[in-house]
């Protein structure tokens, strides 16, 4: 059995996938967001901690609550996107470890006031990993993505995450991109510029 993606699959995920800034007027059905979650939850995180939490902002009310926290260059494309995923991480992810990593007491690794920085670093690192998984999963399901970090995290946390242990990481617009809004692809490094084989 061939266990590698063919060229069309690699193009879909990497070679021809682009960061979109303009969107077709075409909705993303909630059932597709459920399929998206079913994919991005599967790849690995440390001790299966799975700290990512996602709010899918679709309604006009939700988008308007987000608007004042965006930098000016991100407003129009976000307001026009069918979905804006607010990708967050849960600082109390360790409370779920008895469920997610039941074969040992992994919760004890992160318990206590002296472990706050460890919890934060673990949540941020693994939540960011899961954000990348979400982008690849969205592309695999035929969605285009527009990830971005140009927003006021504290403002977004106050507007959407107040009273929770969740903290915003980054935003990702989702939908069906309009290729007329694409910029030329920026350069990428060659192997020898960024890699070493030891």
From TrEMBL:
Keywords: Flavoprotein, FMN, NAD, NADP, Oxidoreductase. Its cofactor is FMN. Pfam families: Nitroreductase. GO terms for molecular function: oxidoreductase activity. Its EC number is 1.-.-.-. It is an enzyme of class 1 (oxidoreductase). Coiled coil: none annotated. Residues 18-176 form the Nitroreductase domain. Belongs to the nitroreductase family. HadB/RutE subfamily. PANTHER family: MALONIC SEMIALDEHYDE REDUCTASE RUTE-RELATED (PTHR43543). This is Putative NADH dehydrogenase/NAD(P)H nitroreductase SAMN05428998_13314. The lineage of its organism: Bacteria, Pseudomonadati, Pseudomonadota, Alphaproteobacteria, Rhodospirillales.
């Amino acid at each position: 059995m061939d266990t590698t993606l063919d060229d069309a699959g690699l193009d879909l995920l990497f070679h021809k996938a682009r960061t979109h800034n303009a969107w077709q007027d075409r909705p993303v059905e909630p059932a597709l967001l459920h399929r998206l979650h079913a994919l991005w939850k599967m790849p690995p995180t440390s001790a299966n901690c799975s700290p990512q939490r996602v709010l899918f902002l679709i309604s006009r009310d939700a988008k308007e609550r987000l608007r004042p926290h965006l930098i000016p260059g991100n407003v129009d494309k976000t307001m026009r996107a069918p979905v804006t995923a607010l990708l967050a991480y849960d600082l109390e992810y360790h409370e779920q470890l008895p469920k997610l990593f039941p074969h040992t007491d992994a919760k004890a690794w992160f318990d206590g006031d002296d472990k706050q920085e460890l919890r934060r670093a673990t949540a941020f690192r693994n939540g960011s990993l899961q954000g990348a998984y979400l982008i690849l999963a969205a592309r695999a399901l035929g969605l285009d993505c527009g990830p971005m970090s140009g927003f006021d995290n504290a403002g977004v946390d106050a507007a959407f995450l107040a009273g929770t242990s969740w903290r915003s990481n980054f935003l990702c617009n989702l939908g069906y991109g309009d290729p007329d809004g694409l910029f030329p692809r920026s350069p990428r490094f060659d192997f020898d510029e960024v890699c070493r084989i030891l």
